[in-house]
Write a structure and sequence with these properties.
Elements: H1 12-24, H2 29-35, H3 39-42, E1 44-47, E2 50-53, H4 61-73, H5 76-84, E3 111-112, E4 115-116, H6 118-137, E5 150-154, H7 161-169, E6 178-182, H8 187-194, E7 202-207, H9 214-228, H10 236-239, E8 240-243, H11 247-253, E9 260-261, H12 279-285, H13 287-306, H14 313-328, E10 332-337, H15 345-357, E11 375-377, H16 389-394, E12 401-406, H17 414-433, H18 437-442, H19 450-453, E13 461-466, H20 471-492, H21 503-516, H22 526-538
Parallel strand pairs: 5-6, 5-7, 7-8, 8-9, 10-11, 10-12, 12-13
Antiparallel strand pairs: 1-2, 2-13, 3-4
Length: 539
């Protein structure tokens, strides 16, 4: 077995944490700060251009000690080594998990089935670089001899969410190309994108590992039909490229074999933006910025692999999450970036975290009787303050939150930046301290209104301060959450890298689709039968 198979609830540290939780579950963080003037320094990790303050959590040094013991007892160190060395840790699918190899230096030696994969990775990277430069510089042209102005990424899931998030996050660094993303099989989506495009100057990137994904192929064929109203079949080769492993199907589509960028089965879809799936990122911001993104991720890989757990950022964040999920019973976590550029970041993390760790069977094949996975949600501050912060501040649910901020703005408007960061800092302080009855009374509040203005406080947050939003720092940030996912999965004793739960709905959708043409008639429950009938009558 490549990974340890330890039920966390059977460990000594888990039992210690259960007893410890009972002793401190009602403690207020305000009191902890009052007793220990050095608390913020004790629970802060400074690394590179990251400053991670986790002192505003409902923990003591004893809590942290037991959590670190838990990481040791479930053999996290050995598991990290297994992942980075290319062992088959995705055991249910018989695959290694090596997205880290995609951002490793060329001098590294990472073996899968005895073969060093790094030379092949760099062969693809050089192909991405050459292709990007040809398109960006205008050397590669469309069928009428005009340079490209637009790029359309056609994919879904990991073939869409990662590239779309990164392109959105790095808008400041974009070149003259306008990048669009088509993912939903909803025909209104693809048609809204098409109507903005000029077929003479648009490049299409079809991203599908198997080249069989229903949504992606439906959209690709719709776009191809639209394109052929303006151009000939021979022109497809100039305007369509593919990221896929299914060479024959890609060629049958009409794509030039020279314009196929390969993928590997040791890269999961939701971790694939570092591979040729990131071609649209490279086209949008230029290869050098794309390469910086990868180099930033590699820096975080090295930190995660070598740093002691007590000052290891992904490990610390994962342990905080375990503490709230499994002991406080907190079901969700909010991710609040104080940057409009990171508008899609929480959406991206939803797939990464919830698809990976939404499991109820452990690595021994047994049903789990403890909580796994967390619900992830969020929006940028300050918008989110005027939307759902009321629930975090005064609701009945405990919602730990990650606050992500940048000390420097990209456009340099200091007045706006100061206002943004004042909110960033004020919210974590307010969530910590709350507002007491005496505070409310001192404001002259009417007696019958006082209860409504009291804030309990004691709401946990992590504050992640980064110097500036750059391709490199974004790479570090994404990799940080990837490794957090891994640590949680190891502690929960689950396989984080399969997603069989996604498949059943797809299979049933294919069967129902056949019924629309009258080819077959399947048995359904009453509800589905009625809904199917209603659709047919009203479509």
């Amino acid at each position: 077995m490549a990974l340890p198979n330890i039920n966390p609830t059977t460990t000594n540290s888990w039992k210690k944490l259960e007893e410890h939780f009972e002793a401190i579950k009602n403690i207020h963080m305000k009191d902890l700060f009052a007793k220990d003037k050095n608390r913020a320094n004790t629970f802060t990790v400074k690394w590179d251009d990251f400053y991670v303050d986790f002192s505003k959590n409902r923990i003591t040094e004893e809590t942290f000690k037991y959590l670190l013991e838990l990481a040791d007892e479930v053999k996290l160190k050995e598991a990290i080594e297994s992942q980075f060395s290319g062992e088959i840790i995705n055991q249910t699918e018989g695959r290694a998990v090596l997205h880290s190899a995609l951002r490793a230096p060329e001098s590294y030696n990472v073996k899968v089935d005895g073969e060093n994969v790094i030379p092949e990775v760099y062969q693809v990277k050089r192909k991405i670089e050459a292709f990007t430069k040809e398109v960006v510089n205008g050397d590669r042209k469309g069928y009428t001899g005009k340079p490209f102005t637009d790029v359309v990424n056609i994919g879904i899931g990991g073939s869409d969410l990662g590239p779309a998030m990164v392109v959105d996050s790095l808008q400041y660094y974009k070149n003259h190309l306008t990048t669009h993303f088509v993912s939903n099989v909803d025909g209104d989506h693809v048609n809204e994108v098409i109507k903005k495009l000029n077929p003479e100057t648009t490049l299409f990137v079809v991203v599908s590992k198997t080249f069989t994904t229903q949504e992606t192929l439906s959209n690709a064929n719709t776009i191809k039909s639209w394109f052929l109203k303006h151009a000939s079949a021979n022109d497809i080769a100039k305007h369509f490229v593919a990221v896929s492993t299914n060479i024959d199907s890609v060629k049958n589509f009409g794509i030039d074999p020279n314009n196929i960028f390969p993928m590997w089965d040791w890269v999961g879809g939701r971790f694939s933006l570092w591979s040729a799936v990131g071609l649209s990122i490279s086209l949008a911001v230029g290869y050098n910025n794309y390469d910086s993104l990868l180099k930033g991720a590699h820096k975080m890989d090295k930190h995660f692999k070598s740093e002691d757990f007590g000052s290891n950022i992904p490990v610390v964040l994962a342990l905080m999450s375990i503490w709230y999920n499994n002991f406080f019973g907190a079901e969700s976590e909010a991710v609040i970036p104080y940057s409009q550029y990171l508008n899609q970041f929480a959406t991206y993390l939803q797939q990464g975290i919830m698809e990976s760790n939404g499991k109820s069977i452990d690595r021994n094949g047994n049903s789990i009787d403890y909580e796994t996975g967390t619900l992830i949600w969020g929006e940028p501050g300050t918008n989110s303050q005027h939307a759902f912060f009321q629930l975090i501040h005064q609701g009945t649910k405990l919602i730990p939150a990650d606050f992500i901020g940048f000390t420097k703005s990209l456009h340099g408007n200091q007045d706006h930046q100061d206002k943004l960061i004042s909110n960033f800092l004020a919210q974590t302080e307010a969530l910590l301290n709350g507002k007491t009855k005496s505070d409310v009374v001192a404001e002259g509040t009417k007696e019958d209104i006082i209860p409504f203005k009291v804030f309990q406080g004691n709401k946990p947050t992590n504050t992640i301060f980064i110097n500036k939003l750059s391709p490199e720092s974004l790479g570090k940030l994404i990799a940080m959450y990837e490794h957090k996912i891994f640590v949680q999965g190891i502690i929960w004793n689950i396989f984080s890298y399969d997603q069989f739960g996604v498949e059943l709905g797809k299979q049933l959708a294919s069967k129902i689709l056949q019924e629309f043409s009258g080819e077959v008639k399947n048995e359904h429950d009453n509800s589905t039968s009625n809904l199917l009938k209603y659709y047919k009558e009203n479509a």
